[in-house]
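Incident log, support desk, overnight shift.

02:14 A customer reports that sequence design results differ from what the structure should imply. Their input is reproduced verbatim below. On-call engineer (initials T.W.) acknowledged and began investigating.
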């Protein structure tokens, strides 16, 4: 079992970090008091693998005593599995600016006379937690994409390609473009199996149709260029922080050419190590 405690300064990005970690497969629990962490860890340990990766958000609002938190940390680290703590911080002026932009109240606002004083006091209060952290990330000048990339580097599982999922879908132009598409490839220039009487009732998932579509030089040349393009761009999309990419491949009716090409592209992208879903929007529609 992998337990990650997320702590840090209010406004430093704990919520964003938690949402990115959730995308990476962590089960997230927000604002958990230290007294409950150990019991929750024991509960997760008996979950038959359902809660193998857990991230618990702990901040100044739940802090009755850091001694209690540190005692829990020591006990967790003595248990089987990994227990780590991530601490997020940012420069006082950055946190003040973020609070002014969001118009949220600082957790210590009722105990201080100004936002600046609240930020300063929280930094002092949380210093012992920072010193016990395994990882410290300063988000003062970190974009959301950079934060996500750093979390993936620290806590991503082997083979995870930026945590990005790729959906490849075929469609027919006569039914309209998929509104959710990020990239659209038009394959209507390829020879059309529709005009082959024996192939017309079949789809691009049938071997005979696929063999026909890929028997032409223009199809093979197009596929080579598409594969080169995707090999180059997919890592850049992931690096930029994109969590989901939709690739749409269209032909006239969405039965033959686009289906065959979509299936081949999905297999290629899967071979690159990405999580892939394959869909055929219009394949079951009437000709």
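02:41 Re-run completed on a clean worker. Output:
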């Amino acid at each position: 079992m992998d337990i990650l405690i997320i702590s840090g300064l209010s406004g430093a990005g704990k919520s964003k970090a938690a949402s990115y970690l959730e995308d990476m497969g962590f089960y997230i629990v927000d604002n958990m008091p230290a007294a409950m962490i150990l019991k929750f860890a024991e509960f997760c340990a008996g979950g038959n693998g359902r809660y193998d990766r857990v991230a618990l958000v702990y901040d100044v609002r739940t802090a009755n005593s850091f001694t209690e938190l540190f005692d829990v940390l020591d006990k967790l680290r003595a248990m089987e599995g990994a227990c780590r703590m991530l601490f997020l911080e940012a420069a006082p002026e950055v946190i003040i600016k973020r609070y002014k932009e969001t118009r949220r109240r600082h957790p210590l606002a009722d105990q201080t006379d100004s936002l600046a004083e609240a930020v300063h006091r929280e930094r002092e209060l949380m210093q012992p937690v920072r010193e016990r952290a395994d990882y410290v990330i300063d988000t003062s000048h970190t974009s959301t994409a950079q934060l996500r990339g750093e979390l993936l580097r620290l806590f991503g599982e082997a083979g995870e390609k930026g945590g990005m999922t790729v959906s490849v879908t075929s469609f027919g132009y006569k039914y309209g473009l998929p509104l959710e598409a990020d990239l659209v490839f038009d394959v209507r220039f390829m020879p059309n199996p529709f005009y082959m009487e024996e192939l017309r009732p079949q789809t691009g998932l049938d071997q005979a149709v696929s063999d026909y579509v890929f028997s032409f030089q223009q199809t093979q040349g197009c596929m080579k260029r598409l594969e080169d393009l995707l090999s180059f761009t997919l890592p850049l999309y992931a690096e930029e922080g994109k969590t989901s990419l939709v690739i749409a491949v269209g032909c006239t009716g969405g039965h033959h050419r686009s289906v065959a090409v979509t299936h081949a592209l999905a297999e290629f992208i899967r071979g690159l190590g990405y999580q892939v879903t394959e869909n055929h929007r219009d394949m079951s529609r009437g000709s």
